[in-house]
Specification:
single chain; 143 residues; alpha/beta; Rossmann fold; 5-stranded parallel beta sheet; Universal_stress_UspA; UspA; Rossmann-like_a/b/a_fold
Length: 143
């Protein structure tokens, strides 16, 4: 069955960019890129290390906007268009909620984050593992 709406969660890592490239190459359908901003007061967020505050929230949102803007540019280079979304919350939960709420029938995502250090890689790998285990649709993990 051909996909009609593919979701590509992006975290700014090279593997996420590879996932977007694969989705654009393999699927001739609606593609949405999603970045999830983890709340700064969450135990696993940057806020746990850097301290929460309005400037940190603004910085996190600006980073999310840059990530989806780069994805839009990357798609345009391939004569494609992507829809964009930014959500706040637990990454795996936000991805799964987006799938359920927006008629997504395929997820293509990177297996873990990029050059962020061992703990971050393990946590972001956990996001992919959780999405694979819980998604009601096919999930392709790019490694």
């Amino acid at each position: 069955m051909a996909a009609s709406h593919v979701l590509v969660p992006l975290d700014g890592s090279p593997l996420a960019a590879d996932a977007l490239d694969d989705a654009l190459e393999l699927f001739d359908c609606r593609v949405t890129v999603l970045n999830v901003v983890t709340p700064l007061d969450a135990p696993m967020s940057e806020g746990g290390v850097l301290g929460a505050g309005e400037s940190r929230r603004e910085s996190a949102r600006e980073r999310a906007d840059r990530i989806v803007d780069r994805a839009t540019d990357r798609a345009a280079e391939r004569d494609r268009r992507v829809e964009t979304a930014v959500r706040t919350g637990d990454p795996a939960e936000a991805i799964l909620q987006y799938v359920d709420a927006h008629d997504v029938d395929r997820v293509v995502m990177g297996g873990h984050g990029g050059e962020r250090g061992r703990v971050a890689r393990r946590l972001l790998g956990t996001v992919a593992t959780n999405v694979v285990g819980e998604a009601p649709v096919t999930v392709t993990v790019v490694r």
